[in-house]
Structures are given as C-alpha cells and as structure tokens.
Amino acid sequence: MKNKALLITFLSAAPLAVGCDKEKSTAQQIETVKAESKQAASDMKDYTFAQKDEFVKAMQAQLAALDKDLDTLSAKIDKSSDAIKAEAKPKLQALRDQAAKLNTQLADAQNATESTWDSVKAGTKTAYESVVKGFNDARQWVSDKIAP
Q1: Domain, as residue range, for 105
Q2: With a threshold of 0.70, does the pTM exceed it?
C-alpha cells in the first residue's frame, strides 16, 4: 500500500522533473508526462474502499504538483507579450476550473461509501485525466508560442 502511495507521489512529481530537462524536446517531455500520467491513472483502479484515505492523499499530492506546474506556466506566460497573455488567460482559467473539479471529486471520494466507491473513484480518475490532458495541451501551447 505504501509503495502505491510512493509511486503515485513520484509520478506526480515527474512533470516537474520532466519540465526541467533541457536536453529533451518539449514533445519528448510531453510524451513522457503522458505515459507517466497514464500509469498513475491506471494505478488508481487498484485502490479498494479500505484504502480510500490513501487514495485521496495520493490524489491531493498529484493535484498539488499540477497546481505548482500551472503556477510555473502562468509565471512564464506573465513574462510574455500582452497578446500571448490575453490568449493564455482563458486557457489558464480552464485549467484552474478543471483542477477545481478534481478537488470537488476528491471531496466526494473522501465522503464516499462502500457502495459508491467505484463510481466516485471512476469520476476522480476521469477528472484527473482531464486535468493532465489540459495541462499537457497548455504546456505544448506555451512551448509553441513562447521561445524557451
């Protein structure tokens, strides 16, 4: 059980590490993050109702890592032109909205009963995948619009 939590924590930190790797192209970084995110999402299905608290903690750690990455992207955008900022603002807001939805799903997971666990866990997985996809799309957009 602790190994799963450590694995998920590691995978949630992976986007930060990948984002700092200057030797890889952005496309390679995004592919690496996608693969690691898929693995983390796959690991979610292994949590039982008895492991609900571990699941919520692991997901909160992943959400915190994504929020930190989002702040990093936002800071990079803030240093760019007004046109880029204007175009990026709705994209960043959409990502923050998706993260808020994931946070709501995590609250639902924390309050889930044994009979609702599988449904709530599936909803959380869907919300997580949506946030990760949105973040990867935003990272690619930033890379295309702003020179490194």
Answers
A1: 2-145
A2: no
